[in-house]
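Dear all,

This email documents one entry for the complex benchmark we are building for the journal club exercise. For each entry we list the sequence lines for every component of the assembly. Then comes the predicted three-dimensional structure of the complex as a token string, followed by one or two observations. Please use this as the template for your own entries, and keep the labels exactly as they appear.
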Amino acid sequence: MSSTYGENLKISIFGQSHSEAIGVVIDGLPAGFEVDMDELGEFLARRAPGQGKHTTSRKEPDRPEFLSGLAGGKTCGAPLAALIRNTNTRSSDYDNIRDIPRPGHADFAARIKYGGAEDVSGGGHFSGRLTAPLCIAGGIALQILKEKGITVKAEIKEIGGKKDGFLETVEEARLDADSVGGVIECVIEGVSAGYGNPMFGGVENKIASCVFGIPAVKGVEFGAGFEAARMRGSENNDEFYYEEDGRVRTRTNNHGGILGGITTGMPIVFRAAFKPTPSIGKPQKSISFSEKKDAVLEIKGRHDPCVVMRAVPCVEAAAAITVLDIILGGKN
Amino acid sequence: MSSTYGENLKISIFGQSHSEAIGVVIDGLPAGFEVDMDELGEFLARRAPGQGKHTTSRKEPDRPEFLSGLAGGKTCGAPLAALIRNTNTRSSDYDNIRDIPRPGHADFAARIKYGGAEDVSGGGHFSGRLTAPLCIAGGIALQILKEKGITVKAEIKEIGGKKDGFLETVEEARLDADSVGGVIECVIEGVSAGYGNPMFGGVENKIASCVFGIPAVKGVEFGAGFEAARMRGSENNDEFYYEEDGRVRTRTNNHGGILGGITTGMPIVFRAAFKPTPSIGKPQKSISFSEKKDAVLEIKGRHDPCVVMRAVPCVEAAAAITVLDIILGGKN
Amino acid sequence: MSSTYGENLKISIFGQSHSEAIGVVIDGLPAGFEVDMDELGEFLARRAPGQGKHTTSRKEPDRPEFLSGLAGGKTCGAPLAALIRNTNTRSSDYDNIRDIPRPGHADFAARIKYGGAEDVSGGGHFSGRLTAPLCIAGGIALQILKEKGITVKAEIKEIGGKKDGFLETVEEARLDADSVGGVIECVIEGVSAGYGNPMFGGVENKIASCVFGIPAVKGVEFGAGFEAARMRGSENNDEFYYEEDGRVRTRTNNHGGILGGITTGMPIVFRAAFKPTPSIGKPQKSISFSEKKDAVLEIKGRHDPCVVMRAVPCVEAAAAITVLDIILGGKN
Amino acid sequence: MSSTYGENLKISIFGQSHSEAIGVVIDGLPAGFEVDMDELGEFLARRAPGQGKHTTSRKEPDRPEFLSGLAGGKTCGAPLAALIRNTNTRSSDYDNIRDIPRPGHADFAARIKYGGAEDVSGGGHFSGRLTAPLCIAGGIALQILKEKGITVKAEIKEIGGKKDGFLETVEEARLDADSVGGVIECVIEGVSAGYGNPMFGGVENKIASCVFGIPAVKGVEFGAGFEAARMRGSENNDEFYYEEDGRVRTRTNNHGGILGGITTGMPIVFRAAFKPTPSIGKPQKSISFSEKKDAVLEIKGRHDPCVVMRAVPCVEAAAAITVLDIILGGKN
């Protein structure tokens, strides 16, 4: 099982990079919600190729086609299904990848798992393209959350180890036929205290479980995260105080809005680490399945030197899906 | 829902710090396995209080009582249940915590969620004591994995931001009536390539989902983790090569044994960040529920200045439970 | 949550009777299986309208379009998605149903649940048309099971309380502007002993849980079923004996191939009771939501006086999906 | 996986007939509910041996011991765990069963599944004794439902095919060293319209999935059930009308309170068929595993000639657990 997520809101993502279409089924959306299609389109455009100055957006934005789940423009209680057609034809560009797995990519693992039946074309089901249906589901979840007073906002904190000059860092990597990764921080505001559960049903468990579903994520941390491990308790503990409006808040937010797996009413804050794009122009050492010996791989074509810009809405999508899933389950 | 985990191996943990008992039900263990009770006892002893030179072990080790799931000393296919009696009587030590929530602790979130019905005594179900039943399940899982040629080994990488001199760092914190956290790394060897799934069914998703169930964990990363976000693709990508025995391996292991959510046959490597123990001797600012105003909290009694030593077997337990759960599901 | 099923093989069904399309996502299919599209088409044709002599098949068979999950004609490990376009335009035929719920139909319950946002057109997501995607998933599961030596065969045992003359019984009902239900029996052969689990993980629980997902099913029984409740133990108990080939079998099969939730190697046998089609030509007493008073409903158009013939492949589909789900999980 | 049930309320049952103890962990109970222990004791007494005139109650009622989940007598949000000690010592009564499986019992299937590691003593985990922890969970669920205005009441409709004279029928079977089964009907009142979901998430699916977890159940039907399959639509369809209080109800309840998987506000009605107790005094034909040939089995000791009386509270328990699980999930 791979591509389903959620308990109260269940999403099932399908598609390969070069299959007829990619898409998502979303089961459990509240009935009667009017999806703002323009807003959704703008959200999806944020993950389309060409999010930085250094590249030119050459592709039309992907337009989802809605197959079910709406009646009169509103959610009707039935599962919502949407697809995006793949316009790329199956090319022979991937013939060498079938034999020589790309370092850092899923090619090798997929070959062992599926015994050669896997769809290698464009990365198949492992392609970053599969984040488009994630963003359809996430974009709708964001709208529903907004109506409930909850906002989800992600931003880049680091690229290639630097905290600014992101486009320059990416451009340098591109000129070197190389790639860079980065860190994205996501802040969720407006979730009241009392959601989530201790141990395995915690908000951290659920968010991590979804965010690790975005390709290239290798780490997830909440609040002060790994930095908390370097603090003393007296520094890391967030003092409680009464706001003038009678609400209890904390002065700092090292706990990232979650204590004991349960929301405290403070903003939920997490960061995800993205590894650098594995497909790079430089020649790389790998192996040849057919010849059963070491081989050098040269990947043809242009490659995205950094997915971090396009991953920002994907992180928001994963966060929104998780939070809506949690909220639909109530506080019990 | 909170304290259940797993798909093929289901564990259900119960108990509060001061309830009659704590324990675990494990459903799905393979039948016919003889649990080595001595080995299990030694494993459990590793998480008992007093794991460092700086403290004296004053408590008898917790001895689990097995209620079901065994016949003639072997697993019989029925759910295995084990409990550990709590010998602490319900004390009045926690009366002030009922009114003044501890910063960094679950007290406040639990109060909002359970409306005052929560068991605050000793931290209730949020207590680190609940890692004992986790270790019962994990200790059994470790033995089953060992029989399959799989080993799980965790160790401390950092305490209080330092990479050595752990006991000194802890002792300093203790003398300051303060606490420190740390980072634990876990290595799982012997899992063959092809387990796991893309997207939400990935090995990373499943491990993170379990490890965040250990109290105080605020971050989880795989392979190079957050450091990967600072590398270039050419550095981070792990080259494949043929071993003399015909197996394909990678020369480095920045991917931590998982690509595309699927195992590659390389060791699975992850790190978990533990925040410093929230209960400290220093006075802390908090609020009083009853007086609806800010208040100062002074926590009585001795407190563990660092849980990281005792958390090492807990991380192994969580890893072993997850890996056994994955392996029992097969590679399809 | 409504339209997802399965643990190892997860299906997610979408669509409304008059939405753009209906379809299914199937996650967890073994990779490398070549789906026989002609055989699948023939299977789907069995549930198309006009399965009896008394009606004329006026509709083209629904042809599924495959969006993903196949590469080179074989399953590739990625989720398989298929859809069927709805050719019916949204008509105004259902305007009165929006106000006056049909007795025996989901109209009233859906109105309360979805607050008027539900898609009433053609029955929306509750339509029998949604069994088409069930049959796509089931048809593929049947082919995979066949390769494993497992066959699933359903047949009608009763219509309108009679054990033969089915078409005459249906025709009589039709002439009376009425409808009839019936009983379908399903036999699954070739499942070896040892699958399933005691209590809630039993084969009976899982089959029932899926078969009750077919609209109009109001009862499910295994082996001798309700008749077993009228036997004595000495009659109902199935004697074991050794076959000449060394296999243990039972002389009778009142247990329907399942004891203690676990398969015995005997054929799995179950029956499902289908209520008569609720949409009938006769005027019926109901209520008007808008006028908040009792009202008489007259349903326009032709209606299927009996769904039982068309339900036979649906029962096979549900059985095949469940059995494949169980088998993919293995015997542990 | 076998002995866990539920999505919002998760129960995990453990124990064998002759293990140290049997019991249950219940995760997800609303916090702050005071369990009436006397009422629970009375409920449990209803499934204790000796519910009919024909037998003498020789055993003390099983008294559950509560290990966790309560604080000050009320549920505290943490998982509730309860156990019942087994007082029977492991006897050698079951030595012949280990070799000669009882017809109609799980012995044979368990032997194949667990390869001889299964606990045959007293039926192990398959024993009817495991309905005691089911009744602990169910008894608590009943109390919570009662507070919400929901009642669950089961009664015997048939024993040995007769609709009255139950004790005489059982006594006749006993005198013949034989056994009888029966049919239990359960009525759940007070569930408002709008719970449940279409297709696999229906109330019927969920109830059936739990009720088939009671040993000996071979059929489950809702409302008119199998009889509906013999009616015409005009008979089976339940007319809607407005009550004087403004509520919509149906004049008949052939639909058993569920249409399209969703509650209608009418009483939920279902029946479960129990097969006759497989353990009977008469000699029966079976096989010997050790000798690999046919063999005759004579079961020693007294045996319950009918479990139906004791099964009544078990059906109520399963129904209550399911309904509470559904209600805790809300109507979305």
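Observations: DSSP finds eight helices and 17 strands in chain B. Chain B touches chain A through 107 residues (CB under 8 Å).
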